């Protein structure tokens, strides 16, 4: 039976392994034909930025992996609008063109629609 699983990414892309682990979980779950959605909020929205210079800190760039999510059948990719706004980011700066922006109310509705929530 297909489950609706939402991964909530709240951590900045570098400095900890949390962001990379969330992506790995998403890719692994997609192999088992689950309905995977990803929500980027708080500092997790920084994972979505284009032109990340991760090589400057000897880290592998995760933005390129995020672009491949749709190839794995992960098409429900969301960003928390208030988190984007609080960090003075612009939607044109994001690596994923069709990321869906959600306000607080829409995030609450999304959470209620899921069978499983995984927060990173």
Strand order in the largest sheet: 4-3-2-1-5
Helical coverage, percent range: 25-40%
Q: What's the tally of helices? A: 4
Number of strands: 5
Could you explain the architecture of this structure?
- The protein has 120 residues and is an alpha/beta fold.
- The chain has helices at 18-31, 63-67, 81-86, 104-112, and strands at 4-9, 35-40, 76-80, 100-102, 116-119.
- It has a five-stranded parallel sheet.
- The protein starts with a strand and ends with a strand.
Task: Record keyword descriptors for this entry.
5 strands; 5-stranded parallel sheet; globular; alpha/beta; 120 residues; 4 helices
Element layout with pairings:
Layout: E1 4-9, H1 18-31, E2 35-40, H2 63-67, E3 76-80, H3 81-86, E4 100-102, H4 104-112, E5 116-119
Parallel strand pairs: 1-2, 1-5, 2-3, 3-4
């Amino acid at each position: 039976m297909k489950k609706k699983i939402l991964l909530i990414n709240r951590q900045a892309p570098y400095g900890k392994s949390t962001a990379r682990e969330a992506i790995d979980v998403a890719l692994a779950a997609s192999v088992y034909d689950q309905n995977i959605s990803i929500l980027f909020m708080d500092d997790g929205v920084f994972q979505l930025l284009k032109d990340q210079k991760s090589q400057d800190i000897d880290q592998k760039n995760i933005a390129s992996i995020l672009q491949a999510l749709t190839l794995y059948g992960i098409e429900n990719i969301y960003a928390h609008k208030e988190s984007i706004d609080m960090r003075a980011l612009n939607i044109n700066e994001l690596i994923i063109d069709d990321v869906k922006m959600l306000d607080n109310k829409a995030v609450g509705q999304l959470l209620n629609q899921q069978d499983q929530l995984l927060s990173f």
